Amino acid sequence: VFQGRILARRLLGQETRYEVEVKTPYRHRFPLVSREYVWVPNICGCPPLREGAEYLLMAQRHVNHEHTLNRILLRDNGYARPWTPREERLVREAAQHC
């Protein structure tokens, strides 16, 4: 779970790749750097992420069986909400209990 700003969107094959500036990592099981690529396995724009907007994203690490692909994956039904101070407060409160 992290707060990020969408810098760019690019369609590659049947997937969408977003370049994201990681603002605040809240809870993560793998290291995040200040800029990451987040992949969505479709080109329909689901979830709809706008360039320049900030979101609270819950993504997962995806490693294929051959261990040749290691990326951050946001499912089309994944958690992607526009960032608001309320969202930040809710995430920080939940982190105290998890």
Strand-helix topology:
Blueprint: E1 2-12, E2 15-25, E3 35-40, E4 54-58, E5 60-63, E6 70-73, E7 79-82, H1 85-97
Parallel strand pairs: 3-6
Antiparallel strand pairs: 1-2, 1-4, 2-3, 4-7, 5-6
Subcellular location: Secreted
Protein name: ATL5 protein
Main location: secreted
Helix and strand pattern: EEEEEEEH
CATH class: Mainly Beta
Report Rg.
Answer: 13 Å
Structural class: mainly beta
Kindly state the percentage of residues in helix: 10-25%
Average of per-residue pLDDT values: 86
Number of strands: 7
- The proportion of residues in beta strands is over 45%
Spans where pLDDT lies below 50 across 5 or more residues:
none
Pfam families: NTR
Protein name: ATL5 protein
Subcellular location: Secreted
Domain NTR: 1-98
Give a description of the structure.
The chain has 98 residues and is mainly beta. β5 and β6 form a beta hairpin. The two termini are 13 Å apart. The model has no long low-confidence stretch (mean pLDDT 86). Keywords: Disulfide bond, Secreted.
Would you summarize the structure shown here?
With 98 residues, the chain is mostly beta strands. It is built from one helix and seven strands; from the N terminus they run E-E-E-E-E-E-E-H.
What key phrases describe this protein's structure?
mainly beta; 1 helix; 7 strands; 98 residues; OB fold (Dihydrolipoamide Acetyltransferase, E2P); seven-stranded mixed β-sheet
